[in-house]
Amino acid sequence: MRCLFVLVALALALPTAAAAAPARSIGDEGLSDPRQRQLPARHRLRIAIVADWVRASQACDDSPKRCERFHFAPLLLDFAYQLQFAKYAMFRPSIGIGYNVGNSRNAMPAVLQPSLFAGYQGKLFGAAAGWSFIFPFPTVANQDNGHQGLAQPALWGNHALQLELSLTSRLDRGALNFGLRVGGMKTHLIHLNLDLKRWYPIVTFSLGWYFEVGKRRRERAAASP
Q1: Which runs of consecutive H residues, i.e. helices, occur in the chain?
Q2: When you count CB atoms within 10 A of the terminal residue's CB, does the N or C end of the chain come out lower?
Q3: CATH architecture assignment, domain 43-223
């Protein structure tokens, strides 16, 4: 009977010891608890898919009567470096290159887009403001699709000012990032009899992955005696 009481006491003590063990081993090995959100690393690289959308002008044809609204929609592969400083502040230069998937792609097929953004980056949410120069090339105003399509617009000198909201979640050795930007794009639009310099609304979605710079080196340094 005495042995039975001893075994029961040991069984009750095991969960407490097991619960305390991970905390001690995490601290001893210099690791972090994956359930606890951490501030972003100071230096990170990001690769992302970025999609812009701008509603451009419309063209009509009288024979037969038809009208078509044109859209400028670059789909880009974007490469960025993000610096985290002053704990919650961030600065991110980037450059993207891709293709216009909108129905104005015959007039503006390829797109190059450098950007600069700065703002707040917390453990999960981020907010920033930034500038982008959206350079379509080659740009040929009033180009059609070669199948009796309507003339397409060309947008020159595109400077975009946007506000960005983002969500970043750490996964394994990196972080998954979702972003939404809204703002205005100042452009010079040339389309048929239109020759306008004005602002157009622009909306941008992004999906990216962050890589920490120097993480393995820091882990080896923390593990060494």
Answers
A1: 2-29, 215-223
A2: C
A3: Beta Barrel (2.40)
